[in-house]
Amino acid sequence: MRILSVLAFCICVASSALAQKVTLTLTSETPEIAAGKIILVNVVMKNSSSREIRCDIFKQNELDFNYQYVVLYEDGQPVPRIALKWPILSNTYGCFVAPGEATTGSGGIISQHFDFSRPGTYTIQASRSVIVDGATETIKSNTITVTVLPPPEASESQK
Fold first, then answer.
1. Cα(92)–Cα(146) distance, rounded to whole angstroms?
2. 110 lies in a domain?
3. Range of the domain at 141
4. Which one, out of 12, 59, 73, 95, has a CA that is 20 to 30 A from the CA of 118?
5. Which helix (H) or strand (E) holds 152?
6. Is residue 39 part of a domain?
7. Residue 158 maps to a domain
8. β-strand 68-73 against 57-60: which pairing, if any?
9. 149 or 4: which carries more pLDDT confidence?
10. Residue 159 covered by a domain
11. How confident is the model over 62-91, as pLDDT tens digits?
């Protein structure tokens, strides 16, 4: 039993050390936007390890799906994905980020894939699996908030 406890402690220490070597920073140029407008997100991966890491991009209809996105409405419920009504367009780009460097950013148009039609506050977080020094871990970004405002005609009619 004592060996299992030590092993569990070592795994936790290794995981937190890996999380410090690679960080994800999520931003949006539009933290407040009218309903129906495009919502863009940007994810920057910083490599603080001593080796280069992969930062491949898999764009599918203008969003990088090498990241997993958690989008929640203000009540904490997951926001439904949008069923795409057009052909899926995808591009893959290989890349590496050197030690001490960061990517120029990825992400894309998240509002094409998640339903932001209800006015209110949404939280978004991105995550991604990375391999550093032979260990794989899912790294999570910070959480951002995007506020969707009612359309102008809706707020005018409420006066």
1. 28
2. yes
3. 2-152
4. 59
5. helix 152-157
6. yes
7. no
8. unpaired
9. 149
10. no
11. 899 999 999 999 999 999 999 877 767 788
